Amino acid sequence: DAGVIQSPRHEVTEMGQEVTLRCKLISGHNSLFWYRQTMMRGLELLIYFNNNVPIDDSGMPEDRFSAKMPNASFSTLKIQPSEPRDSAVYFCASSLHPYGYTFGSGTRLTVV
Amino acid sequence: GIQVEQSPPDLILQEGANSTLRCNFSDSVNNLQWFHQNPWGQLINLFYIPSGTKQNGRLSATTVATERYSLLYISSSQTTDSGVYFCAVGRTNDMRFGAGTRLTVKP
Question: Of B31, B17, B10, nearest to B84 (Cα)?
Answer without folding.
Answer: B10
